[in-house]
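Objective 1b. Sequence-to-structure analysis of SDR family oxidoreductase.
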Amino acid sequence: MKWSADGLIAVTGASGRVGSRLAFRLAAEGAHQRLVVRDPSRVPHLDDGRPLPECETAVAQGYDDEAGMRAAFEGVQTVFLVSARESADRVAEHVAAIDAAVQAGVERIVYVSFVGAAPDATFTFARDHFHTEQHLRSTGLRWTVLRDNLYHQALASFVGPDDVIRGPAGNGRVASVAHDDVADVATAVLLDEDPTRHDGVVYDVTGPEAISLLEVAAALTVATGREIRYHAETVPEAYSSRARFNASAVELAGWVSSYEAIAAGEMAHVSHDVERLVGRPARSFAQWLDDYPHEWEALRRRGPEGPPA
C-alpha cells in the first residue's frame, strides 16, 4: 500500500477542474481523502451517484473561513492546496488556509502555484503565488510546490464570440498543460512510497512544447472547422477591449498581464517533470484537442461568451 493511503489527505477545491480529477485518482488508488468544498452538492461522485470510496466531505465557506478550514484539516496528514479565486485578498486567503493547516496539526502541504512565480513576475497572479510560497516555506511544514503553466482549456477559452483570440502576447510562446496531467503529477507526489523525496521541491508542470497563439488559433481552426484568428493587441487595446466586462482592477490586470507574460517569454519554458513523475510525456495542445473534445465543443457552434481568461 502506498504511504499516503495510510494518512488522510485533504483535497481543497474538490469540485474544481484539478481537484475533482485528483479526487477520482486518489479514490482509484485506495487513498483516504477528505474533499473540501463550499457546496456539498458539488462533491465528485461515481456515475451511479454513490460517493467515492474512502472519501469524507468537509464544508468551508472559503479559505478565510477560519473555523471551517481548521475543522476541515483536523486529523489530516497532507493538504492539497489549490489557489483561491483571483481577488485583491487572494494572498491573505492563501495565508489563512496555510495557517489553518498549521493549527490543525497538518504535516505537509502540496501547493498548486504558477510557473515563474516571483515578486516581479509580469503576470500579476504569479506574484500572488510567490508570496504564498514564501509564507508556506516559513511555516516549518513539509511542502511541495507544483508550478503549473496555463491550462490548455484556458487557451481555448481565449477565443471570443467573433472567433478571434485577442491579447498583447506578440509572438511569444506558452508551454500550456492539461488539467489531467496536473492531476496525475499531484497523484504521484501525494502517493509516493517515499514522500520525503518531494519535500522542499518545486516542480514546473508544463506541456511538452511551447506554442504561439498563432499556432493555437491554427490548431483550433482545424479542430472546429471554423476560422479562428489571433490578433496581437497593444496593452492599451487589451484593457479597452475588456472594459465591457466590468471586472475589478485586479482581475483586469491579471487577464492582460497573462498575455504580456507570454510576450515576455515567461511561460515558454518546457519542463519534463510530468514525464519524470508520471512515466509518460505530457499531452500537447493538439493531443488535448483530440482527447477532450467536450471541453471545447462550444467552439464548433459559436465563440464562448464571457470574459477572456
